[in-house]
Amino acid sequence: MTAPLETSGPTEVPARHDRGPGAGSGSVAPVGRTPLVVKLLVAATFVVILNETIMVNAIPRLMVDFSITERTAQWLSTAFMLTMAAVIPVTGWFLQRVSTRTAYTAAMATFSAGTLIAALAPTFEVLLVARVVQAAGTAVMMPLLMTTLMTVVAAQDRGRVMGQVSLAMACAPALGPTVSGVLLELGSWRLIFVAVLPVAVLVAVLGLRQLENVGETRRTPVSWLSVALAAGGFGSFVYGVSRIGATGWVEPTLIIAVGVALIASFAAYQLLLQRGSGPLMDLRTLRHRNYAISLLLMSAGFMAFLGSMILLPLYLQNLRGLSELETGLLVMPGGVAMGLLGPTVGRIYDRVGSRPLVIPGSIGMVAFLFGLSRIGTDTPYALILALHVGLMVTLAMIFTPVFTIGLADLAPHLYSHGSSLLGTLQQVAGALGTALLVVILDGRSEHLAASGSAPADAFMGGLQWAFAAGAVIGVVVVGLALLLPAKVDAPEGAPAPH
User: Fold this and answer.
1) What is the CA radius of gyration of the chain?
2) Which of 68, 228, 394, 496 is most buried (most C-beta within 10 Å)?
């Protein structure tokens, strides 16, 4: 059976049943089994999301090869986040408009094309364009995966399956620096894309051979004004955040203000569209209390997670003198632990609910971030490794239950909109957290250096303050975790078990 479609406005055209091959595969899988469509989408999502952080270790090589500054080279990551933030809001409409196979084909073809262009890029500008193309394909995959999961997995089995999804959602970005460190040890930065391309093509081909369409499409019109407001608003906001600390405060403040104004205009226009034709991003998702709390909690969690993730490589390479490979290997156990724990955490959630996981996990996250704020210039690597693994374990305890309980609070016709909004705010929160902690690091270091501290001591002082700021953000996560229920009842029309 397929989940019934509910209209989001009086003028919405009824759903059409033209999903093509495999139509009707939206039937719910038996409890205890992970649908093949979800496994295929998890594999593809892991490959594309890995690339969000895979260029971090390559910056020194790129600076030499293209004769550019570190600030310019960082644009390879900033442009990726900008594109994700601009494209993801459109995916809610896109995923309702086209079939599962069409969305998958478009996403993987776009990502593979960007990867090929990057491998052959003769100039930095071409490489930057390639990263934008990669990100455009990546932006479709996570909402596609989440929407499909919520459609074909029964409510009491979602924790376990969402735990498997966490492998792509959180483990891939954590493993990006490790993968790039190994490849950079073997050769040029181009090897990163040369290695990723055949894997992406193989996953795409195997996926298309097995993937079936899920659910039904709708002939909903698209509001191009909404597209422009979303792209301009979220893109400007992330760009402004990325400029904090680069050119003073005036320029980024003005850009952020423009972004906020455009986002507010976008939200107001969506509320207007909800009265008639379908909105690009249905904000009625925010009327659901548990979804709204989960959205805020995930945003705060990703601020601390991604912000802290960039600090440790800076410390290990700039202060302790480790190579890219050594740095990647040191942070790899934490990423692996997060991915491997995902299914276990999901099964525990299915049995006991979210609170026994999320509340201790958020408290543990604060404790480990505070522990990282106390490291020094000669802290044993074993202790750093233990703190990082502990942080990743606590994050696994948070992310899987919160994703599950947030989207489970929505009716089926809001799944694609809910996952799109969640993905957008992840990018914004990640950019904000990274910029905030780096600004704190630089500001404190400069202050200590001006006061006569040695360069190493000044850097260490800034790093400690930055990790402490991450712990403060974690306190917000603890507060929000206390507001979550153990579980939520599946709304009417949601998948039921066999």
Assistant:
1) 22
2) 394
Q: Can you name the residues that pair with 217 across neighbouring β-strands?
A: 16
**Residue 289 and residue 317: Cα distance in Å, rounded?**
43
CA distance 267 to 283: 8
For residue 16, what are the β-bridge partners?
217
Count H helices, E strands: the chain? Answer: 17, 0
Q: Count Cβ atoms below 10 Å from residue 450 Cβ, excluding itself.
A: 9
pLDDT for residue 122 is more than 50? yes
Amino acid letter at 305?
A: F
* DSSP per-residue letters across 358-377: HHHHHHHHHHHHHHHTT--T
In 3D space, the residue among 22, 41, 14, 147 whose CA is nearest the CA of residue 92 turns out to be: 147
Average of per-residue pLDDT across 246-257: 83
pLDDT surpasses 50 at 361: yes
| 412 or 389, greater pLDDT | 389
Query: Read out DSSP for 122-154?
Result: SSHHHHHHHHHHHHHHHHHHHHHHHHHHHHHS-
- 0.70 surpassed by pTM: yes
Count of other CB atoms within 10 angstroms of residue 267? 17
- 11 φ, ψ to 5°? -100, 5
Residue type, 3: A
| DSSP secondary structure letter of residue 171 | I
| DSSP states of 39-54 | HHHHHHHHHHHHTTTT
Q: How far apart are CA 191 and CA 176, in angstroms?
A: 14
DSSP 316: I
How far is residue 150's CA from residue 305's CA, in Å, rounded to a whole number? 25
